[in-house]
Amino acid sequence: MVYWVVKILITPLLRFFYRVRVEGLEHVPEDGAAVLASNHLSFCDSIFLPLVLRRRVTFVAKAEYFEDRRTAWFFRAVGQIPIKRGDGSASLRALASASEVLEQGELFGIYPEGTRSPDGRLYKGHTGIARLAVASRVPVLACAMVGTREAQPIGQAVPRFFMPITVRISRPLTFEQHYDRAKDPRVLREITDSIMFELRELSGQEYVHTYARRTRDEDAVAAEEVRLVSLATMEGSARRPVAAHAG
C-alpha cells in the first residue's frame, strides 16, 4: 500500500524535474517472476528504476536500515525488504530473501556489482545473481541506468535537477541449459559474465574485471544519503494530499 502511495506522489515530481526516458519496457513480463539486474551508479538508481516500471520491484537492504524508524518507512515505501536474519553470510541471507520474492511471482531487483561504482565504470559481477536465477529458474533482464551518476554523484544528498535519465532494459536472458548445474562455480561465473556483458552493451560503460570496493567512509556517506532522502520524501508526502489509490 505504502509503495503505491509513494509512487503516485513522487512519480509526477520526478518526471517534472528530470527528463526520464525508458527503452525496452515491453521486455518486462506483465506477470510472473523475473530478476532485474542493474548497474549501480547512484543512490537514486533505486528510485528511478521502480519509477519506470508498471509492476512493483523489490530489492533487499541492510537490516540495520529497518531498525531506525526514520529510514525504515522509506525503504519499505520504495519496495525494499530487510535481509533475512539468521546464520550464514549476509549474501546468502540476502539470496534467501530474494528467493521468497521470486517464489511469489514478483520482480526482484539486484545490483550484481554489490556496491556503487566508485568511478562510473562497470565492475565485475558477483555470482549470487546467477545462483539466484538458476535456482529459482527465472529469466534475468539487464537494466542499464544512464545519467544517474551525473544527477546525484556519490556523497551528494541533494540531486541536480533537470538532468536526462535513461533506463535501458534488455530482452529476458534465460539459462535453462544450466538449471541442473546450479552449484557449478564455472557455470555461475559464465552466467554472471554474460549478464555483465549485456549491461556493458546497454550502458556504454567501460568494463573493469575486478570487484568494486567500498570504504567505511563511503558507508557513512551512504547512510547519510539514505537519511536525508527519506526525510525529504517524508516531508514532501506530508505536504501533498493523496488523490488516488493504486492496489
- CATH architectural arrangement: 3-Layer(aba) Sandwich
CATH topology assignment? Glycerol-3-phosphate (1)-acyltransferase
How many discrete structural domains? 1
Q: What's the shape?
A: globular
Q: What kind of assembly state do the chains in view correspond to?
A: single chain
CATH class: Alpha Beta
Helix content: 40-55%
H/E element string? Answer: HEEHEHEHEEHEHEHEH
Low-pLDDT stretches are 236-247
Give a verbal description of the structure:
The chain contains 8 helices and 9 strands. With 247 residues, the protein is of the alpha/beta class. The chain has one domain: Glycerol-3-phosphate (1)-acyltransferase (3-Layer(aba) Sandwich). Strands 1-8-7-2-5-3-4 form a 7-stranded mixed beta sheet, sandwiched between helices. Helix 3 links the parallel strand 3 and strand 4. The protein is globular and about 45 Å long. Mean pLDDT is 85; it is low at 236-247.
